[in-house]
Design brief:
mainly alpha; 5-stranded mixed sheet; two-stranded antiparallel sheet
Length: 784
């Protein structure tokens, strides 16, 4: 007996719900137990303390997250339940996509193929496992597609469901209350639904009561925009995370438009240029390289059968559901336009940032792949057994295959890196420290420790990158983190820079002896004339430049910090490339510095050398590959720095000093070369060897190492100055050596090309003038 229409609806709902529940179980089993990388820590704090995360503030998600955190006190820390909420959004999105395909095609199995393919794709699955904003955005996109398909099916069957229009308008408001990228889909969907509504009215199938329908649409719009009041209310309570310090509705536009980041681009052009200068032309996003990476990454994320189904689905939609097909084409046009504004550098770290924006188009592609599966399976009225077998096969070669292929790379069940990193940063901070953070991983991991886990409440934090913003300085004042003068935000009638803010800060903190200042690094050099940084584990303590050095005390402080580290995240290769790959080198840095200090003390003052066991240091000694190279390179650099300090000291200058330090020089040289044997591109090892060669006046050897440095960092102007200087000395010493001249000429030409790329990335940055200066400064003697 064939089930009736109502029975089919019930069956479709049950199967799509079962798919969503199965995927939720998968996500829960592989979910991160704590905060993930990137913005996860900041979001976890905002969504558990009624705060406002970074622009655009995500007010709707913030409300939902805080309600979930308050009503479902599951787990030992806030991030655990919020991660499950994020997983529920992702699983629901897959179930909704499956239902949308089934509604449009009448083939339930095709919908299940689409939902499973989306749910087990690499990027979608990975971002379902730790709190972020993209799974909720995917759910909103899936709902829009479902509403479009349901409305189109109703118009096609001469039974339009007018109540879907207010629902669609409500979902579209999340373009403002959650994530602006949804507008790429909302605009074509709005146009399509308006055209379908006009067609139904022309056919005499308009709404029976148009007045109440119009009022319900206005009500849906108003209710959808109500979350915009959240940032104003939340900021008035001074939560630990309150981006923009939105105290009135007049402050809202700047928050929603992401004015602090630069409206219309993912990154500030200055950040992109810095990365291109540091890594070369290969990092440039020009030429639609991010769009190309997106397209070429689809087979890796979904398998090779998926793109074929998408193409078949487009053809099916243009024949059988033209309104939906045109929405897909319109979305594709907007997507290409969007990628013209995606300016993230082509580097592994930034690729992981850009991939998050692949999720929205992946939702649309999954719908089209479901249409393709329906086209292969044929009409629902045909014989069911062969159809079921074919659809099962399609599910296996798409979602089923990716479930097996991606599981190990995506699984975040044991990933506690971000939380551990925050705790390990804090372990090196003295009581009542003022931590000057810069970078998402440093700020967000420590913020989560302080505000969500409520540890080390004696520590206060300042985000250096936000110091130029008046709203942030205002927050620092009323939170009494710093005693800052009003003049800090304005100097000579112009907005304060990070450097001037830092100089003003010095007078109010360190010089007054208020509290210790720690940092990993500072974003400007204004502090170097008066202060120095002494390692304390991963962080460093700011000291006056004339304060006597106590290497033994520094080594003990570093060892004590390292003993408190969680070994679970020290030196283990992360399961997926991304933030962890860029931040775990700081463990190698800290441990290399510690071992270097112990090496120096063993040579100069064995009695004061504390060799108490440090488990993390023992682990580092066995590292190989990238981390092993960085550990040895940092160890060598500490030796090199200490040697140079001794050689430059008036108290130790003399004819016998160089010979006395020769064993340490040989040790530094050996360690740096061992690092290069593990990783031939290790920049720190190359710099250390170049400095050692410079100290020994071995110009030709120094040139070789500096050539390798500038090959890796062709736009590092400080390195280029040293490179061209030693190159000229080498050419004067051996005028007949044309090999040096040729390599210098090629390096200069590459620099000129790189500056042209930078000028294209930001025509207002003055790189044409920079190119003219460097062309003159690097002119070779033979060309004069």
């Amino acid at each position: 007996m064939t089930p009736g229409r109502e029975g089919l609806v019930v069956m479709r709902g049950r199967w799509c719900t079962m798919l969503a529940l199965a995927l939720f179980a998968l996500y829960a089993a592989t979910a991160c137990p704590t905060i993930g990388p990137g913005d996860s820590g900041e979001l976890a704090v905002a969504l558990s303390s009624w705060g406002v995360p970074h622009a655009p503030g995500y007010p709707l998600l913030s409300i939902i997250g805080n309600i979930v955190h308050a009503w479902i006190p599951w787990g030992r820390e806030p991030a655990s339940v919020l991660n499950l909420m994020n997983a529920a959004f992702a699983a629901a999105a897959c179930g909704v996509v499956a239902s949308a395909v089934a509604i449009e095609t009448g083939v339930l199995g095709a919908g299940l193929v689409a939902g499973l393919a989306l749910g087990t794709s690499r990027v979608f699955w990975l971002h379902a496992l730790a709190l972020e904003v993209f799974s909720f955005n995917a759910l909103m996109a899936a709902l829009l597609l479902w509403l479009l398909c349901a409305f189109h099916a109703g118009v096609r069957d001469a039974r339009p469901r007018w109540t879907l229009l207010p629902a669609a308008l409500f979902v579209m408001t999340t373009c403002i209350t959650h994530h602006t990228t949804l507008v790429l889909l909302a605009l074509p969907v709005a146009v399509a639904m308006a055209v379908l509504a006009a067609r139904a009215i022309r056919w005499g199938e308009g709404p029976e009561r148009p007045g109440p329908l119009a009022w319900s649409m206005l009500l849906a719009l108003a209710i959808g925009l109500l979350p915009l009041l959240y940032p104003v209310v939340a900021a008035s309570k001074a939560p630990p995370m309150s981006w923009g310090d939105v105290r009135s509705l007049a402050d809202l536009p700047a928050l929603i438009a992401r004015r602090d980041f630069g409206t219309g681009t993912l990154l500030s052009p200055a950040i992109v240029i810095d990365q291109v200068l540091a890594h070369g032309e290969a990092a440039s996003p020009l030429g639609q390289r991010n769009l190309i990476a997106f397209v070429t990454g689809i087979p890796r994320d979904f398998g090779w059968a998926f793109p074929v189904l998408v193409l078949m689905g487009i053809a099916w939609a243009m024949r059988r559901a033209r309104a939906v097909g045109l929405v897909a084409l319109g979305f594709a046009v907007f997507l290409v336009a969007f990628f013209t504004r995606v300016n993230t550098p082509m580097l592994p770290l930034y690729a992981s940032v850009t991939e998050r924006f692949h999720i929205l188009p992946h939702v649309v592609f999954a719908l089209l792949a479901g249409f393709g599966a329906a086209a292969l399976a044929g009409p629902a009225e045909r014989v069911r057994a062969p159809q079921a077998v074919l659809l099962a096969a399609l599910a296996l070669v798409t979602g089923g295959a990716m479930l097996v292929v991606q599981f190990r790379a995506v699984n975040q069940r044991h990933n506690t890196f971000a939380r551990d990193f925050g705790a390990d940063l804090l372990s090196g901070m003295p009581p009542r420290s003022l931590f000057f953070a810069t970078g998402d991983q440093f700020h967000n991991s420590v913020l989560y420790q302080l505000a969500a886990l409520r540890v080390r409440r004696d520590v206060a934090m300042v985000e250096q990158d936000l110091l130029p913003f008046e709203w942030y300085v205002r927050q620092l004042r009323y939170r009494r983190v710093l005693r800052l003068p009003e003049a800090m935000t304005r100097l000579d009638g112009t907005p304060a820079t990070a450097s001037s803010a830092w100089l003003a800060l010095n007078a109010e903190t360190l010089d007054a002896g208020a509290r210790p200042i720690v940092a990993v690094r500072f974003i400007d050099d204004s502090w170097r004339e008066r202060y120095r940084l002494e390692p304390r584990g991963i962080v460093a303590l700011l000291r006056h430049a004339d304060t006597p050095r106590d290497l033994a005390a520094q080594a003990r402080a570093c060892a004590n910090a390292a003993r408190a580290w969680s070994l679970a995240s020290v030196g283990d290769e992360p399961s997926s490339a991304g933030w962890e790959v860029t931040e775990d080198v700081f463990y190698a840095y800290a441990l290399g510095q510690l071992q270097g200090m112990r090496d120096v003390l063993a040579f100069t003052d064995p009695a004061s050398n504390d060799v108490t066991r440090v488990p993390a240091l023992e682990r580092a000694s066995a590292w190989t590959g990238r981390l092993g190279a960085e550990f040895r390179a940092q160890r060598a650099d500490l030796l090199r720095e200490w040697i140079e300090g001794r050689l430059d000291s008036a108290q130790t200058r003399g004819p016998g000093v160089g010979a006395t330090l020769a064993p340490l020089v040989r040790s530094a040289d050996s360690l740096a070369r061992a690092a290069l044997a593990m990783d031939a591109g290790n920049s720190q090892a190359l710099r250390t060897l170049a400095a050692l060669m410079a100290r020994q006046r071995r110009d030709r050897d120094e040139f070789e190492f500096r050539q390798r440095i500038v090959d890796r960092a062709p736009g590092d102007f400080a390195e280029l100055e040293a490179y061209f200087g030693v190159a000229l000395r080498a050419m004067r010493a051996a005028p007949a050596d044309t090999a040096v001249t040729g390599r210098v000429t090629r390096t200069r030409a590459r620099l000129m090309r790189l500056l042209v790329v930078c000028d294209r990335l930001d025509p207002n940055a003055g790189f044409q003038d920079v190119a003219r200066r460097w062309a003159a400064a690097t002119e070779l003697p033979s060309a004069r």
